[in-house]
Amino acid sequence: MAETLTIHIDGRTLVAQSGETVLQVAKRNHIAIPTLCHDERLDAAGCCRACLVEIDGQRRLQPACNWPVSKELRVQTSSPRVQRHRATLLGLYVADHRLDSDGLPVHTTQGNDLRSLAQGIEFKRLLSIDSPRHPRGVDANPYIAYDPDLCILCARCTRYCDEVEAVSAISLAWRGAETSIATAGDRGLLDTSCELCGGCVDVCPTGAMHAKQAPRFEKPEAVQKVRTTCNFCGVGCQLDLNVQEGKIIQVTAPPPGETVNDGNLCVKGRFAYGFVHHDDRLRTPKIRGADGELHDATWDEALHYAAKGLLGVRDRHGPHALGFVSSSRCTNEENYLVQKLARAVFQTNNVHQCAAT
Amino acid sequence: MQRKGAQREGILQQLADMGGASTAAVAQVAKQTGVPEADVWGAGLFYGLLRRDPQNTLVCNGLSCRIQGAEQLRHQLTEQGVATQSVACLGLCDVAPAAVGPALLPLPACDQPAHVLPNNPDLPINLGGERDRSYRGLGAALKLGADAVIAELQAAGLQGRGGAGFPAHLKWRSVRNQTDPTRYVVCNADEGEPGTFKDREVIRRQPDKLLEGLAIAAHVVQATEIYIYLRGEFERERRILQSAIDDACHGPLAGLQFHIVRGQGAYVCGEETALLESLEGRRGMPRLKPPFPTERGFRNKPTLIHNVETLACVPDIALRGGVRFASLGRREPGAKLYCISGHVQRPGVYELPLGVSLDELVACAGGYVGTPQAFSPGGASSGFLPMSERSRPLDFASLGQVGAMLGSAGAVVLNDTADLVLAVHWQLSFFEHESCGQCAPCRLGSRWVRQALDRYLASGDPGELSDVLDVAWEMNEGSICGLGQVASLPLTSAMQHFPEQFGRRPVTQEHHHG
Fold first, then answer.
1. Best interface-test mutation with B: which of A76, A171, A195 has the largest number of B CBs within 10 A?
2. I need a labelling partner for B167 at 20 to 30 A (CA). Which of A26, A150, B234, B332 fits?
3. Which residues of B are less than 8 Å from A182 in CB distance?
4. A220-281 sits in which CATH class?
5. Residue B87: strand, helix, or coil
6. How distant, in Å, are the alpha carbons of A81, A118, A201, A207 from that of A100?
7. Band of pLDDT at residue B513, cut at 50, 70 and 90
8. CATH classification of A286-353, choosing from 3.40.50.300, 3.40.50.740, 1.25.40.10, 3.40.109.10?
């Protein structure tokens, strides 16, 4: 049973529940603590060190993401010591990152949390670090790519792959400044347990993990996000179509906690949007004419034509000559209607659903 | 039902048995254990011994070995047609330059017994004495009972001998008081701090005292399973320890299960939580603390972890009392194993009152070779001190006052034939190589600082070092574990105490290319 208590952050007295972390309480009260490796869905790693704060009674700075609240805990999030820490830490990150002409971490289509932090803090400028990550081999998978130069080794991708997806296709490998995100034997993702869900892309704070189909370095203001429902199955995952000039350039998951899918998507929802703008996509119903060719029709015409055909079979051969198979893309309600159509209208129990094999 | 994660614990040894973390071995281990292949791969590639060519002879390039001619040794071996590879530190600093063959046994040239003090039964560990297999300390401890043993430890003032100096009795009491009935005792025998080889010598000469200490600990904290995480390169020591366990497992050690787990070549696994990760078959990346291992350690259970030397002191404390042990020290309690190597006559391990000075320690070792210019008081991570500190007591508090530390008490002396800046460079390279890579301050900072020193060596321009103190500050403030916190100390301490050596520097051909 959670206990209610009070803690003090930067002199403000705040209500907290036992079991919460300093970061959770700070967030709820709009006290900004920077994070890079944090994701609510994952166990705290405390490895990016961005969220270090001063905690009364602790000799060392401690990660807010992992520090449990306790009665009358006193926390400083912007003391000179914390500020110096942030400025120098960020300086090291920036010195290890690909920079734009302004000397800031490059912008990517997915955004870049490091860039956002660097824009908000007067950080320590340091000469760049020569620290190539252990290279990754050729990967023929069509969807996901890894750019080690943008990787800050927050390990959100590997932890997500393990803790949320339970797939563990990728892991931290090697050691020290050589540490990299690897697959077993540096194989392509298609030759691993990877399901190509693309969660690693979504959780990456810097765009190191990115979608191969998407442009890499579009400005966020040029991209409009359109929230919609995935139509590949009946779960109803919400997705954000990232639209630029009327075209989908990539699909992202809404932030965790906002929708039923909690920030997760599968390979279809995230990557299989190519049909939307495809030349061969059907845009109207079609009816095959006496000439053997398909001709455009209205929905009314097409439905009437189909109904006529079904009724014809029933009249000639009886209701059991018909069978109804609904699509796995249907919702529960649609599946219900299909069986109702079969049983009530056509008087047959020959009804099935393609996902019920 | 099989405990979750049980299969994972064995993967590192399985990879070692198959010759290292090759793609084939990783695939097979993953198949046998059900551990995801990427995890096996990621864990395997973390460890130096799993990445080495198993045919190679390993030549140490630690500081003590470098100043005694490691480069030449490697050159000689290569000329003899021996395949070699350079490794960070082998824990053989007293017989420098050191090398071990493919079976991880020292080459004959560096396989001499270490210098120790002659037999003296007053010493708690008494490396020079007959091997003590009496287990009398264990008998005394059982008679005293758990609470009295902890009281004796407190009276002894025994501080952790691995480097942190944390009072032992606090750990014992904490584990004993946990509500969870399953507890473990873990021995940290992953001795890897350059300049340190005392635990090696304890295992070679008095292995039974270590086992006895572990047994006492297990009885006090009510554990039955004991894990000894032994440095992988200590193959001979592993055999000695195993045979000592076999000799006593039906006698004084009955009822306890001992497991020796081989380290696979990662210095950071000497950090206690990295060690636990490694024991569980993962990359040796330190955990966030709290929770401390005494609450949630090995397999998430209360765990008592101690260094070899700390445990080897326990039988004497149980037998002759904490007060007597405490009286062996000067300003801080107890006797202490000091390692000394570098430019001294008889490098070795000397058991002396805690708080002797460098001069006293070197006197035991037969005196200095040449004119000493600097020393590292407690292993690579303790930085460098000038000879003006030669009379300073080598203890936890006194060295802390000058920004150094006793650490693992692996003192190294450099005489004036050594280039201090190059010595600093070697130490920085060591930490950079051994950084686990988990947290940014250490991963990036250790490389940045080493590269700044590279630039200084290449250009001779001290301006290259102007940001070093800022980065070092951040490494200390921001790193998760002790490795990163002190990884720049070799440079910052040398800059502080030897400013004259960091002025404009003539550019040597060797470093001209950076």
1. A171
2. B234
3. 38, 41-42, 45
4. mainly beta
5. strand
6. 29, 12, 22, 14
7. very low
8. 3.40.50.740
Best of A21, A37, A49 to mutate (most B CBs within 10 Å, chain B): A49
Mean pLDDT of B242-249: 97
Identical fold between A4-120 and A220-281: no
pLDDT digits (tens, 9 = 90+) for A101-148: 999 999 999 999 999 999 999 999 999 999 888 777 789 999 999 999
Q: Is B440 on the interface with A (CB under 8 A)?
A: yes
DSSP 3-state of A185: helix
B70 in Cβ contact with B61 (< 8 Å): yes
Q: ipTM surpassing 0.90, yes or no?
A: yes
Q: Over the stretch A52-102, which tens digit does the pLDDT of each residue have? A: 999 999 999 999 999 999 999 999 999 999 999 999 999 999 999 999 999
Task: Judge contact between B95 and B64, C-beta under 8 A.
Answer: no
Q: Domain-by-domain residue ranges, chain B?
A: 8-45, 57-110, 136-327, 335-415, 420-512
Q: Which residues contact residue A345 at a Cβ distance below 8 angstroms, ignoring those fewer than 6 apart?
A: none
Cβ–Cβ contact B467 with A under 8 A: yes
Q: Does A60 reach chain B within 8 Å, measured CB to CB?
A: yes
Q: Does B129 touch chain A (CB under 8 A)?
A: no
pLDDT value of residue B461 = 97
DSSP states along B235-253: HHHHHHHHHHHHHHTTTTT
Domain B420-512 belongs in CATH node 1.20.1440.230: yes
Q: What is the CA radius of gyration of chain B?
A: 22
| Chain-chain contact of A176 with B433 (C-beta, under 8 angstroms) | yes
A128 vs B: CB within 8 A: no
Interface of A with B in 129-148 (CB under 8 A): 129-131
Please check whether residue B41 touches A, CB under 8 A: yes
**Contact between B436 and A176 using a beta-carbon 8 Å cutoff:** yes
Chain segment B347-390, per-residue pLDDT in tens = 999 999 999 999 999 999 999 999 999 999 998 999 999 999 99
The answer to whether the Cβ–Cβ distance between A177 and B36 falls below 8 Å is no
Q: Stretch A206-223: mean pLDDT, rounded?
A: 90
CATH topology of domain B335-415: Ubiquitin-like (UB roll) (3.10.20)
Higher-pLDDT residue of B345 and A135 is B345
Structure tokens at B308: 């070899």
Would residue A260 be called left, alpha or beta, if left means φ above 0 and alpha means ψ between -120 and 50 degrees? alpha
Alpha-carbon A336 to chain mean position: 31
Chain B hits for A183, Cβ within 8 Å = 38, 41
Q: What is the pLDDT of residue B510?
A: 62
Fold designation for B136-327: Rossmann fold (3.40.50)
pLDDT band at B509 (very low <50, low <70, confident <90, very high): low
